[in-house]
Structure formats: structure tokens, C-alpha cells
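TICKET #2291
ISSUE: user wants both folds in one file
ATTACHMENT 1:
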Amino acid sequence: MNNAQSVSHSVATTSNHVEFSTFIPLKFVKRGGRSVVEPPENVAQVIKDHAQLPKDHAQLPDTKLVEGLTRAFYWQRLIDEGIVRSGVEIARQEGLDQATVNECMRLTLLDPKIIDSILQGTQPKGLNLHWFTKHTIPALWSEQHAKFQAIADD
């Protein structure tokens, strides 16, 4: 029996209708006359059952890669709006190495179709955040597709 309750919050934005949802499985139990919140015994299965993925969806998005994309676009926006002057300043403020910030910001150069595949979790299996730190990203989107197709073929 699944006695987990969910606490969720959804946000829908833009004309493309992007929706984010957070699911937190909770179980309320009484201990010493007080209600206590704890995870259900089968928390992994509860989360898996709650996931609303399309039937043809083979894998979940790579959370580290999505986080990297998020940071990259946020940092680029800070630079574009003049809030910071460079990746060096971001690195100093975030307590990160300058190279880490610059490598991450290269993700903003990706073809929007590739970004979409990353957000959908349909990018080639070997394409993760670590891969981007070890390889260059071609400037032309057509070359990016060819390079990423080669990863999928491996």
C-alpha cells in the first residue's frame, strides 16, 4: 500500500509552455502524540511511479548537465546585463575556479535543438557535463550535430 502523500509545485511559463514540477514523497506518522514527517519505506518506487514521462521517453534528463546549462545561461545573463564584467568576476563571487566557469559558459554556444535534447533527456548517452570539460564545442551548429551524432554511434 502506498501511503505517501506528495507536496508539489508547478510553474508554467512562456508561449512554449514549459512546466516544472517538484514531487516530494512524504509519510506522516504519529510518534509520542506528535505528527512526524518521514520518507516512505519504498521512496524510490514512489518517485518512479509518480514520474509523468512520455511512454517513448527512454531516460531521465542528466541533472548535472541540466544544472550546468542553467548556470551557464544565468551567468551569461549576468554578463549581458552588465551585473558582472566577466567569467573571472563570476568565479570570484561563486568561489569557483575561472576555468570551471568558462568551461560551463561554453554550453551557451550549443544549438537550441541540442539543448532541447539535453532537457528532454534524449541526448547521446556519453554526452554529459564531464564530456564538455574534455572536448571542444564546434562553433557551427551543423558541426555540433555531426560531433554529437558520432557520440551516439559509439
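ATTACHMENT 2:
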Amino acid sequence: MGSRSEADKHGMEDAKPKDTILIAEDSIPNQKILQHLLVKLGFDVIACNNGAEAWGKIKDQETKNLVGIFSDMMMPELDGLSLLKKLRAEDKFKELPFVFISAVSDKDQIIAAKSLKVNGYILKPVTFDKVLTKLKQLFPDRVFPKLAA
């Protein structure tokens, strides 16, 4: 019956699981960069190579403590807009934060995404500052670790 500080002294992991962000990105280098940044900011990450893989993990409930999704717009099998549409059709995911990461700034796609209540965009290339700024907007009460540049 030890306190958290006692558990920390003995090298035991914190009992509270970390929040999870799912990444749907078909570019492995971009996926790795984003994953690295999110882990440094205190999240567990599930990385998927396309929207279909992401949807499968979400539907199979392989996404414990899911607090958000960062997705590319243009991917094989199931693109980002289609993934967002599937999520918003499910009651339990209607309010789940969803951020597009894309080099595309196509007006029609942006309008379609807004109609599906997308929570924001990060234009590629992905940087630490862009990701941190978006996370602070999505989770204003969360304290993020201070990291050296």
C-alpha cells in the first residue's frame, strides 16, 4: 500500500496507463518522426501504415486509452478523409480529436474535413513545434515535458 513516490523509488511503473495517440501515415520516415515526437511528449503511440490498418485497430479495440489520431490525408487502401468519416459515424468517436498531417492544402478536401469536425491540420514537414502547438490546442490542461531543442 505504498504511495506513488514509494513506487517510483522502487522502479515500479506508474499504475496509470499513458494516453495513446494513433498515427495513420503511409510514409515510414514521416511516421517515425511523428512517433518519436509524440513519445517524447509522453504519449504511447500506435503507428499504422494506412487508414484501413488504423480502422482495424480501432474497431478491434487495440487502442487502449486512445485520446487522438494524427492522420495523413492521402494513403492507400483507406485515405484520411474516409477514416475520419468512419470515426465520426460511431458515437464513441464523434468527439475524438483528429488531426490531419498533410502536404495537401486542397480547398475541397479541407472543406470536407471541416464538415466532419476535424480538429486541425499540420502541414508537412512535421516539426516538434508544430506538433507541440497542436497538442496544446487539443489538450489545454495537459502539462507537457520541457525538452531541449
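RESOLUTION: both attachments delivered.
EXTRA DETAIL ON ATTACHMENT 2: The chain has one domain: 18-137.
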